[in-house]
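### Sample
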Amino acid sequence: MNALLICSGGFDSVTLAYRLAADNNLGALLTFDYGQRHKKEIDAARVCAKQLGVPHIMMDISHIGAQLTGSALTDDIDVPYGHYSEQNMKLTVVPNRNAIMLTIAFGVAASRDLNAVALAVHGGDHFIYPDCRPDFIRLFSEMQNQALDGVAEVGLFAPYVNTDKTEIARDAARFKVPIADTWSCYEGGELHCGRCGTCVERIEAMTLANIVDPTPYQDPDYWKAAVAKVKAKVTEKVNS
């Protein structure tokens, strides 16, 4: 496999970059500027490409992102705090984001004679993001087989789609990912906030994987209350 990895610069995609590189399966990184407020992740993707010695392709689709309104990631809307399983996290959905990025990525991969597009979506994304679910990945791959029929053979590699972020954290340790050089927080401040969904999930995953998290957070303990709240709701639902 010689893969083009869609790399945001976040914990998940950078971990997949190191996993692919360890097996000499990483051809290049592709990063999108879609007008996201947390642009620090783009810098993290650039650092990742330099560390791994692979080409870094930057794609400016901010003019497209400007039309995908209603998300806290692109609009002047407060980023919601809490666990990803909370309904308010739907404010972080950018409609069709992965579908748009993947479509572009397959074209770029075909043009550069790369035979796979890699994506680090995982099971924790399923509740909120429809274009991170296994059925979407399967059907999108089938669609691209038709779109590139007779032009190029490009597969879709999404190894975490049926697992959770804890497994990604274990891979981060296994492949010696420089975790502090990744950026996940949706707030895009000087430090990770520790309260938005992606921060909560990041801290929780590394805790469950028994990995020391070198990331400084503004609120390093908030995640505990967020996770406890979700567990309490699940218990209440089971007992009702």
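The mean pLDDT is 91. This sample (7-cyano-7-deazaguanine synthase) is used throughout the tutorial notebook.
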